[in-house]
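Help! Submission page says 'invalid entity' but I think these are all valid:
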Amino acid sequence: MSLMSFITPSLVNSAVQSITPILLAALAGTLCGRVGVFNMAMEGQLLVGAFAAVVGSYATGSALGGVLFAIVFTVLFSLILAYGATVFKGDAVVICIGMNLLASGLTAYLLRQMFGVSGTFSDPAIVGLSKIRIDAINTIPWIGWIFSRQTVITWLAWILTAAVTIMMFRTPVGLRMRGVGEDASAAGTMGVDVLRYRVLTVLFAGGLTGLGGAQLSLGTVSIFSEDMSAGRGWIAVVAVMLGRNHPLWAALACVLFGVADALSVRLQSQGLPNQLTDVVPYVVTLLALALSHRKRLKRRAAETLTAHA
Amino acid sequence: MSEQSVRASRLPRIPAVPLAIGIGILIGGLLVLASGGDPVAAYRAILVGALAPSNWPNTLNWAVPLVGMTLVAALPLRGGMVNLGGDGQLVIGGLVAALAALYLPLPGPLLIAAAILCAMIASGLYASLAAWGETRFGIPMLISTLLLSYPAIGIASYLVGFPLRDLTTGLAQTRMIPEAARLPVIAGPLNIGLILMVVVAAAVVFFDRRTVAGYELRMRGQNAKFAGYGGVRLASQQVRVMFASGAIAGLVGAILVLGSLYRYQDGALLTPGYTWSGLMAALLAGGAPLGAIAAGLFFAGLQTGGFAMQRETEIPRVLTMVLQAVIILFLAIRHGVGRKSS
Amino acid sequence: MTIELEATGIVKRYGPLLANDHVDLSVLRGEVHAVMGENGAGKSTLMSILYGMQAPDAGRIVLRGTEMHYRSALDAIGAGMGMVHQAFKLFNSLTVWENVVYGMEPARGVFIDRRAAAAKVAALAERYRLQVEPNAVVGKLSVGVRQRVEILKALYRDARVLILDEPTAVLTPQERDGLFDIIRHLTADDRTILFVTHKLHEVMAITDRVTVLRDGKVVDRMVTSETSPREIIRAMTGRAVNLTVEKGAAKPGAVVLQARGLTVAADGGKPVVDHVDLSIRAGEIVGIAGVAGNGQTELIEALTGLRIPDGGSVAIHGVDVTGVDVERHRDAGLAYIPEDRATTGTALTASAADNLAMGFQRKPPLAKGRLLDGAAVTAHAKKLIARFGVKIGSEQLPVGTLSGGNLQKVVVARELSHAAQLLIAEQPTRGVDVGAIEFIHGQLVAERDRGGAVLLVSAELTEILALSDRVLVMFDGRILAELPVAEADEETLGLLMAGRVGEAHLKDGTEAA
């Protein structure tokens, strides 16, 4: 079996789709990391976004309404991290663990109370995101398949990746953010309001993740199911680590994950049980993490001090 | 510390944990109210469901795995480390216990002991893999413990779904384990798993308070650099602590399989969410064993009460999960509860 | 001369501590004004108030005739204040120009005008003779150059008054002279310098007037040319201090610490510690002098087991401990007072008893097999607290609330009570009060006289000269020279610390490596 027959355009198309929420979450993670807030609540933020998107779409009858709901509610949800880890000086790791649990519990609770179902909620009234069809390239093999028939959020995700990168490395705001993350007290003495930068960045990042959540529930399926973020937020955390808070490298890590995900889908269609193929992306992620840290290995006893303490 | 006490002195002093629980109950109540329920009825149902004498066995039975997973989280947390991989370790323990019970040719009590031991060792080794990855390669354990859960769960799911499946039922599960391998029952739903867990809990408390290794772990939690400078072998300590933590998760898995499920069933160990509740309980106490055990018991009561609430008021019992999360978030934000007890 | 900056009746209180007690300060335009005082005298508090980082509880600040009400440092910067902090506030991963323009970037549209920024920085550097490359990454610059970046930052914001907080602490004497030149250029441009220090000879060399603080109060104001070091000391301490340490001649015995070819590699490039040979004998204090960042930290880490060396060997009391962990170093006879008492030497949230037990926990009487004897831990702590005069309410209290000097006493007490063959003391008196310095110095000499081998690393040349029997100079990862203390003086050491062996007139009996 040749590689070309193994990887089909439709596989790539679905991989690009499935990367989108992770990419947005990873982008959010790099932004937070750059201002010195360790965000590992993306799993919960995606879930809140996905739920809010379904609620919004169901209530307003429009996908745009769903997307707006997702952004607004995820930003609100992110207030916990934005203020908890900055103004109130809480431990970001603990706050994020709590947020992930809160998201899981709260969405499950509201699912039952608002829609009277548990598990999965699907309804014709949930309007999904439409795919953008670019007629100019639509019929071109490969290119048409990959770049056409994607949701506006997928397009936005890649545009935002570029925009965030430029913002981070070419604008005053980006310079200040990088300074805040590297040495908050130094940034403070230069008159940069560290808390404000942190709070606003975490909230903006929340908006990005909310967008990712909307893609999750409205992008391909138009349903919400409990814990549907299913580890994507954690993959995003790893992407941030692999990319060392650089948006482009983090995006590359997301692509790697997308490839692994596509591979697992493909293996499944070859007859391998999905319990095994589902594991592939996580194993790839773990291996990538191991390889990326190999170089950095310092033979120093004191180095084993907890990396994120 | 001093800054906070200055700030708080204007208010009457309410200890942090009761205050957090109060806030959690308040927010939960508002949530119930907002969704058209009766908070008073809901909380009464929880209280009765958890604490009425006739419900004690159920609460205790729920507390065994939950307190177990609390200790799984508390032990590393005492040293400033986080084990997010309880799910994977639990599943490995459960599966290994089931397989040992099914396939080891040993008589009754020996079979039980062997199954439990195998489960503990398997889970312990799996957990220490993450510690090894951090000490040897610098892969942050915070994320590797979590990621390692996915392959463990996936592979376990595959094994009981295909090669080891009990073909007489329609579900992904192993055959029933022999009678001889089942944990002796004490009364009602309670089996000797309860006694095992009490022993383990006591051992952890003793370890923390009385042993040299417990002192060294506490010091690491307060300041890892200080511990390393003082001669504590951080790398091997990390591997050992994670082994112990994983082994307790393996024990919990074994107790559930040998004591109440009598087979390994895909998803059955994870659905109740013991791992995350246990982590919350451990965080609530900042890793201090006695406090963590108390918090674990409290959450167990909350959750068994949740079942009663759902039965009687039709308010979904996931509400209790929201309560737990709110309590932790409040403590983390307002009182700096976390990995360092500062 | 006109008054540039005037502060009157400044009061600042932290809980029960009165850090500034009605402080008055008056600074003339274009002068170099020293603010002197011991650690804890309130200098830092006063400076952070003048720089707008903290609001005073009472008092007025008048800058060029206008009363100021700073809400943040930004207001003070806007009003023409600048500050070079003792610990530099620089972003190591960013370039020089990024550091300088940070927070006040020249923009073109929404983007930073990178070319304009670099050009502006270069022009400023040129004007005040601050040699620095605008596109260099700060993390790769030497300490002296980094300090110039800090000064550039202030000048970029057109600081009329520049606060220099202990600016010479990390400089070689030669770099210090370079700084003094820069200061002269600045005052020639009618800029005003507030020079915060506790080093007398620098005050005498560069300043015009002196304000002395003690216990939060101004105790004296003097004109430098009309005063003497003795007078300033008396004002600072309230008594005349004897800065020399009483000690007899050393009686060196057997070699206790032996390092051969010890090497610590860097991430590419030349090693941080480069084939260092040293041997320390029982009954002597050997000082390592050197500007911070020349490999001392890494050398000590390699000697104590905190870092596995990339080459060479270490033996303590004849036991080869190369590459083994800290515990086996300690077993072989190592006691170690680390550079940073708060992040390494203690666990601030743990009790004094727990802190004092560290290192003893595995041996009797504290350990009974694998169990820890709580009563023995308490008794051990009580004994040390009493013997070393640590001021703490109870051994069960966390040590995080102790003053710098008391906290250091906890570390010193614990490490000395090992009665180890080898004591490594890294910056043992940094940031502690004069009383504690005298006490700790006395303890180190007593340790030597008891027959211990003492390796002392200090950034304070006066400390090195006062305590050491032999002095090693570390430069660029290597031991550049070894000299008996009798032949070491500040000038020679300073030249050696700057790597200028040729200019340092080494006498017989002195080896240049």
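Support: the input was valid. A stray whitespace character was the problem, and the output above is from the cleaned input. Chain B touches chain A through 61 residues (CB under 8 Å).
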